[in-house]
């Protein structure tokens, strides 16, 4: 019988702390109810094949050393393959098909989710279970290729799921299963960009700030810590206010755009407790914290200025195998 294994991994949104997290502050992130799926199927003979439905790409991998020179978009998956190989996963010839509900380049963790789902599906093909730590490390190899200098917050979130307080180097500091008592509305501006560009320009701006850098990072870390406490005690007005301040600082370091500002202000005018860009910025997505009952109005106001807007579950299960045969 042909072996087959299917895995999925969720999208993520950073609620607070993006960019600054690369330089050592804490960040809060949540897994979202949108998924990347990977299906691995055993083939009788090499070459193997990777197919990305959304990207419309198909590449072949000649032999069991799993090396190939594919298009840039699939290099993160190539890095995942190398990481599995380095960990002695004896992967047979395969066809790996990736499909995703998560738009690419929208700040919602599409690359981390595709890498995590691909790694789990391929490991599932040889009947191997991966620990969360191992899956994080393999997914991180994909992220290094996709982002250059990742803090690790995206792979940690898609692998573990939930609402996470994170620090680079420490990983998960604290975690809640889900965000309860308030809605999270996500709007995709439709403006695509890579994460690598904004991350390196923010790092160089921070270097040019001299001693101000330390104070800025310490302010962001305080804001993130206060936001985590607000989530714990369900003080959503305070959480919204902290998200707004965080957005102001992201705007100050140059990663907002007029289009994102319009979506942010539309959400606030429609009753959101807080709204901010999420992820690397310069395009991508905006999140808004909406009290129950006002999510429809917030979603509509954001949707008028975005490609799409919708309320999403924040804090779904992390990457998992969904079938194996
Ligand atoms: C990207 O989702 C989040 C950034 O902070 C980069 C990172 O933490 O790796 C911009």
Structure description:
- The protein is α+β, with helices and mostly antiparallel strands.
- Helices cover 38% and strands 26% of the residues.
- It contains nine helices and twelve strands.
- The protein has helices at residues 75-86, 110-125, 132-147, 153-160, 196-208, 212-232, 236-252, 258-269, 295-303, and strands at 4-16, 26-42, 48-52, 57-61, 94-100, 163-167, 171-176, 183-188, 274-278, 285-290, 308-312, 320-324.
- Strands 1, 2, 3, 4, 5, 6, 7 and 12 form an eight-stranded mixed β-sheet that branches. It has a four-stranded antiparallel β-sheet with strand order 9-10-8-11.
- A hairpin with a 6-residue loop joins β9 and β10 (285-290).
- The longest helix is centred in the last third of the chain and has 21 residues, at 212-232.
- It is globular and about 60 Å long.
- The mean pLDDT is 95.
- Bound molecules: (R)-mevalonate.
- (R)-mevalonate binds at residues 14, 18-19, 21-22, 107, 147, 150-151, 153-154, 195, 199, 279-280.
